[in-house]
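Incident log entry.

Two folding requests arrived from the same account within the same minute. Monitoring flagged them as a possible duplicate submission, but the sequences differ. Recording both here for audit purposes.

Request one:
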Amino acid sequence: MSESIVKGKVYDIQGFSVQDGPGIRTTIFLKGCPLSCPWCHSPESQAFRSQLSWISMRCIGVEQCGKCIKACPKGAIKAGNAVKKSGTDEAISYVSIDRSLCDDCGDCTKVCYPGALYLCGEDYTVEELLKRVSKDIPFYDESGGGVTVSGGEALSQAEFTFELLKGLKERKIHTALDTTGFTDPKNIQQVLPYTDLFLYDLKNMDSSQHKIVTGVPNERILDNARRIAEAGGKLQIRVPIIPNFSDSEENIRLTGEFCRSLGDAVVLIQLLPYHDLGIVKYQRIYDDVKVLKAEPPSDEKIMELKKILEDFGLTVTVH
């Protein structure tokens, strides 16, 4: 299928990224994920559709505006309770969105000139994205960087991701694919020739615990990692350190054993300590959703877990 026909749902494009693979990169974030991790720092990535998002700090209140209330064809937006505006004693009535009525049509965003209401998720063709990233090729060449396709789970939009990676390689751009690994093995096989590096999540080695917390088991994830290694692919393993889920010495030791079994395919392991930066994002798009709130692991704890992995002869960094 031609590049001009295939479209993908993108929720963000970040230039000059230095955290998603080697060098200076552009990271393209696709919507849709089969997992539902309660610590997700990008909850706007989980749904496959465009979603109405609201940022309170941008809202000037219904007293001065309120145009969104009239613009909503479903009557989903109303005036909320008056609150004191941050940093002042001024009372302001923010809008209140009834998510049960909202169908994410986006009519309200067209009249919200402060940009408090916006649709998260925009359709792009492969060609549009290739044109966007190609202007940064000098930065990639100078730094050893490239383009990272992320999510959500990018392979939930498998055809689009395949065409995008293929187009990038045709332009001799280094590619990285950030993936949970929870996808049909045929999707892994399809993108392998066009992916220089897999940024691969390993959340918990116990499949039953993995399913309880994230919503899916881990057998397919581990099997796909083995397939990548056997095919000669390169893996940068990412391990989120989540309190009472993945932060036990036993889990990290099992993770180390598994990574060592993949041999030279594993070029790096990144430990990703839990943080709560995603909580405010949940509030932008959901009324009521289960979100993990916990104390971040201490530096001492992270160093202990790092040492366990290094004892397996693995190269480990903390992100």
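Request two (distinct sequence, not a duplicate):
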Amino acid sequence: MKLHEYQAKQVFADAGIPTPRSELAASVDEAVSAAEEVGYPVAVKAQVRVGGRGKAGGIELADGEGEVREAAESILGMDLKGYHVDRVLVEEAVDFENELYVGVTMDRGEGKPVAMVSTRGGVNIEEVAEEDPHAIAREHVDPAFGLHPYQARRAVFEAGVDRAVATDVASVLTSLYQLWDEKGGADAEINPLMVTADDEVIAADAVFNVDEDALFRQPVLEEMGEEGEFDEDELERKADEYDFDYVRLDGNVGIIGNGAGLVMTTLDLVDHYGGAPANFLDVGGGAKAERIANALDMVFSDENVDSVVFNIFGGITRGDEVARGINAALGEFDEIPKPVVVRLAGTNWQEGMEILDEDLVTVEETLEDAVQRAVEYAQEVEA
């Protein structure tokens, strides 16, 4: 479960992590009142649970009432990466000299939590990790003992943080780990952690994602999650309604499969062949016509999707049943809105391939061929 920025900052502030003064607003007039309360200059920030808000126009600086009105009018109601913006956080602007990154997550390769620090704050940390992995100092933590103070200090010094603020940054990292541990965190990040001219450190952004399986122990966070559903993506609502495992991505090749591993493999192959996945959609067991129709409804509803690839492996599910489901679902359309490529394997896959209506879909015998064909279709639309 992802908290909104304003919620994560509330959690961080309660733990003693410095955060800017801020007020939540749901209208232009509320934004102006919030700015007067906080004091100019301010940042007006879209409250949606997605990264890259600044580059997408979801964060604006304002020095007076007119600029706040203009920023709020621009941001409220906008569609930001598929999310409708209903609220903004009006926050004290921080006059900073440096931007740092601190974060805590689970390193599944090591089987341990990892605390991280970098002087490359303010940018996508995944890009930093790929381009210059040594720019991120890491400390793996024994969960039985927690993050020791010497580990926090070591991470800060290895990252090259200025000595004038090293102790404060180490304190923030320690508090962040304790929150992550005590609250059932999945990911906790401050990016950027700003350093002012007076050598103060302030969490200018906040990310806190909670393990949903731990929510029964965190009633306050669970309430925050329910409160924050105002921006839930329409496709995510459909996924809940249809009982699908679904994650929306930024690409244009829609993916439907049965089984998380199978879907992940398909995502990897789309990327391998030069495409970009638009989603992770696992329909689970069974593939009757109604379930296939629901999956297609979701993928076709995503305006970013230019082609669709079905990757179905029949275990308990039979390939002939899947094929009939696909035919029945697509037969409801007067015109297929986007090209669909199908690959079947496993139980009764040959019968299924023969049943598939090739006036409705493109049939490929191997997964590699199916993915390449779907990527080609998507690229043709882009061209």
